[in-house]
Amino acid sequence: MVTVIDYDIGNLRSIEKALHRVGAEVRRTDDPQAVRDAERLVLPGVGAFGACIDEIRRRDLEAPILDAIEAGTPFLGVCVGMQLLFESGHEKGVHEGLGVLPGRVEHFHDAADGEAEDLVVPHMGWNDLQPTRDHPLLDGMDDPAYVYFVHSYHAVAEEPDDVLATTTYGHDVPAVVQRGNVHGVQFHPEKSQAAGLRLLENFATRPRPTISAA
Question: Is 52 tagged catalytic?
């Protein structure tokens, strides 16, 4: 059973349909105890980092999410749901994230080397994944795998080992992150055809000890 965290932000129906297609049982909930008790968790998200984390806190979902992660529950953040795993988001101010992964989320034009100032933002469309290491989450995907992105902000991970795959848009940015039972994807797997469905299948249907391994 995959539990999709419903905090009324994001196209929840699309991710639900994609999970159903790969054979997963799916339920949607904003109940804190149901989040704590979930077998696997998906945190979707679109729009602004600050609005998303504020709504999670307004619904008293932050502590249940962190409790589930601490308990070893396989977790997948999608798009802004991945970004929220980091310590802070820098969009219209600085917003505190879930703090599961060290690092921040910044605008493409704020790249430290200044080479991204002329990029067309948002980064929208198909781009390839560049894996940094093997992991069961990426098993069976094409090499290279092309997936669909829509984002103006990207993660800056402080720990290189947390980055499972990058993509290049002006410069390399994290496209997939992973630490223990925590996984995140900047792209939209539900819009990424075969590659996205394979990743969701890997997350949703493999034995828990395998997908939770570092």
Answer: no
Q: Which of 79, 91, 106, 201 is flagged as catalytic? A: 79
> What is the reported pLDDT for 9?
84
Q: What's the pLDDT score for residue 8?
A: 87
109 is known as an active-site residue: no
β-strands 123-128, 146-151 pairing: antiparallel
Sign of the Cα torsion 7, 202, 39, 132 reads negative
Which domains are present in the chain?
2-211 (3.40.50.880)
Q: Which of 52, 154, 188, 201 is catalytic?
A: 188
- pLDDT at position 116 is 63
Give the whole-angstrom CA distance, residue 40 versus residue 169.
31
Q: Which of 197, 141, 193 is nearest to 165 (CA)?
A: 141
The pLDDT assigned to 112 comes to 56
Q: What residues pair up with 172 in beta bridges, in sequence order?
A: 168
Helix (H) or strand (E) holding 33: helix 32-37
What's the burial of 200, exposed, middle or buried (CB within 10 Å: 0-12/13-18/19+)?
A: buried
pLDDT by 10-residue block (mean), the chain, 214 residues? 92 92 96 98 94 97 98 97 98 96 95 69 96 96 96 97 97 97 97 97 79 46
Q: Using CB atoms within 10 A of its CB, is residue 197 exposed (0-12), middle (13-18) or buried (19+)? A: middle
Provide CB contacts within 8 A for 128, sequence distance 6+: 144, 145, 146, 147, 167, 168
